[in-house]
Fold DUF4142 domain-containing protein.
Amino acid sequence: MKALLKIQMTGAAVLSFSILSACTNTKSNNASYAADSANKAIIEKTDSANNELAVKKDSGNKEALKKADSTNKAKKELKEDASKFLVKSYEASLFEIELAQSAIKHAANASVKKLATDMVASHKDMNGKMQVIAFDASFKLPGGIDSGHAKDLTDLEKLKGADYDKKFMDMIVSGHEKLADSYKEAYSDLSAGETKEYAGKTLPIINSHLEMAKKVKASLK
């Protein structure tokens, strides 16, 4: 079933999922905040349903109820950790894609353009995998980049030539350093499951991106 879902999460299906993932947050104009809030509500609803089921099954057994409550709380925390990692990673990857697409258009250096092209393809692949995991877990993902990242992109595109290239590479290196730390922590701390497995398989790719970016950055004059 999961294999079939992964095949179906292309074309129109991915577009539909992206639309469902989009959340409007008038309070902070922050796509990640909106997705985190939606996921928290989903997890709370599931947790409440589990507690109600436990009450019905063990209404006369206080010890069983206490144990069930403790188990549900632990599961809730694990789900929240996984959902927060997916939201953070997905938004960061969206930002890397937008940065790279900008560089393809505006960068002056050929190596920078080549790196940007590779980044777009790789991060789109990562986001496709995260969409499948989120779909399986009924989690929402950001419908776009956060307002802070949008401003960073706008500021970058005010630059031209070598100044643009240097700033872009600074942002790519910094961004992937943060991503590498986040993926490493997720793989270390998350419980066994699709999200942990994804983090472990993707961390080497993030590290590879980082090394390539450092080399291109060092080559710029």
